[in-house]
Specification:
Blueprint: E1 20-24, H1 25-41, E2 45-46, H2 56-64, E3 70-72, H3 75-83, E4 88-91, H4 98-113, E5 117-122, H5 125-138, E6 144-149, H6 163-173, E7 178-184, H7 196-218, E8 227-229, H8 235-239, E9 246-247, H9 257-260, E10 275-284, E11 289-291, E12 306-307, E13 312-316, E14 322-326, E15 339-343, H10 347-351, E16 356-361, H11 363-366, E17 368-374
Parallel strand pairs: 1-16, 2-9, 3-4, 4-5, 5-6, 6-7, 7-8, 8-9
Antiparallel strand pairs: 1-10, 10-11, 10-15, 11-14, 12-15, 13-14, 16-17
Helix pairs in contact: 3-4, 4-5, 6-7
The chain binds pyridoxal-5'-phosphate.
């Protein structure tokens, strides 16, 4: 069993067994402060995506810094965060199974009863009909906010911007227990376009499509209270679009290696890496070294990890191993037993591999474990 003793709290980083997911609390808090200041400067609401950290404790920390609530991707994620005290949640995804919609309806009633709120995205008339049925079955008068998801370039869920979206908005507004709350217009594919100009152009097109849809809906007399979207790669463009009112970025909190590969935008806050995998060198050969963190410790869907502060290239050694090559003939290999800190290629699925995140204050040389953060929604996929 993966148990991390509470006795770790107060001890130095050397006491953290490997491999382990470790947060640099100082870096994470600087990221939060930068995001809060950015959102305030641009007059934007921010509703970070909790599919990154899956932790009620972190969600509440973000809300204390000014986040208006959280996005989640699945009903079970919403349930896990609600159980930890998070009150304002938007499921930024399609939910179609009737038994799941019933859970959503019950959670909406539960959150409303404690002064909170649950919202859901839809992209079909069938989805609206099923949600309305689930709301009636749940028997709550609390109602629910529903946003129409439009596809602004990702090619995933969402109807095309324009008349189809407007028809869905009217269909939501016609349901007694549902309130049309706006447009969900997240452009996932734009986040990792490497060049600043490419990202700017992609979001300019997305904003134009969203604004056109808004105008079409408002011309029928139905207000569009909000257009929401944005990830860490593009948030500066949504924030300055004059169209979006809310930022959903999540990864800014931990900043994975894949985001670091984007051309950096001077107008965007400089977010720092804050989630690391602590790993130990367990074998040294003449040509390479081997560490004890493989892809059971970190996700590799968006590329392999970087090695913090070392001229080492990490190569995939399988589930339990990473192979380390010196970058250049003059660079030394690490020694047997050395500690290395990996920057994951993609933080969201990395966090989902861990029950807990070990939060360190004061850096990784002389720092101390301040607390252990539970990943409440680990494995919450339904
Ligand atoms: C719907 C939605 N909104 C927001 C985000 C947040 O993006 P990021 O974590 O890249 O900031 C994602 C990430 O995939 C998403 O799917």
């Amino acid at each position: 069993m993966n148990s991390i003793p509470d006795a770790l709290v107060g001890r130095g980083v050397d006491a953290i067994d490997t491999p382990a997911a470790v947060i640099d609390l100082d870096a994470m808090e600087r990221n939060i402060a930068r995001m809060a200041a950015f959102a305030q400067r641009h007059g934007m609401r921010w509703r970070p995506h909790a599919k990154l950290h899956k932790s009620a404790e972190i969600a509440l920390l973000l809300e204390r810094a000014g986040a208006c609530g959280h996005c989640v991707q699945k009903p079970s994620e919403a349930e896990a965060l609600a159980a930890g005290g998070v009150r304002d949640l938007f499921i930024s995804n399609q939910v179609i199974a009737p038994h799941k919609l019933l859970r959503v309806a019950r959670l909406a009633a539960q959150l409303a009863a404690s002064g909170g709120r649950l919202a859901l995205a839809v992209d079909s008339h069938e989805g609206i009909t099923r949600l309305a049925r689930a709301m009636a079955q749940a028997g709550s008068d609390a109602g629910m906010d529903v946003l129409v998801e439009i596809d602004v370039g990702q090619g995933r869920c969402g109807v095309p911007p324009g008349p189809e979206a407007a028809a869905l908005a009217r269909s939501i507004a016609a349901q007694p227990r549902l309130a049309f709350a706006g447009l969900h217009a997240y452009h996932g594919r734009a986040q990792h376009l490497r060049g600043v100009d490419e990202r700017r152009a992609a979001i300019a097109a997305a904003a134009q499509a969203a604004a056109g849809t808004r105008d079409l809906i408002e011309a029928t007399g139905l207000a569009v209270p909000l257009i929401t979207g944005a990830g860490t790669g593009t948030l500066v463009h949504e924030a300055t679009s004059g169209v979006y009112g809310e930022l959903q970025a999540g990864s800014f909190l931990f900043m994975d290696a894949d985001y670091a590969a984007n051309e950096q935008d001077g107008a965007q806050p400089a977010f720092e890496h804050a989630l690391f995998i602590k790993t130990q060198v367990i074998s040294v050969r003449p040509s390479h070294a081997v560490c004890d963190a493989g892809h059971k410790s970190h996700a590799i869907d968006s590329g392999l990890p970087l090695v913090q502060g070392q001229a080492l290239r990490y190569a995939n050694g399988g589930d339990e191993h990473g192979i380390l090559y010196a970058e250049g003939p003059a660079a030394p290999l690490p020694g047997l037993g050395d500690t290395l800190w990996l920057i994951p290629g993609h933080c969201d699925p990395t966090v989902n591999l861990h029950d807990r995140l070990i939060a360190v204050r004061g850096g990784f040389t002389h720092g101390v474990v301040e607390r252990i953060i539970r990943v409440d929604a680990r494995g919450a996929l339904t």
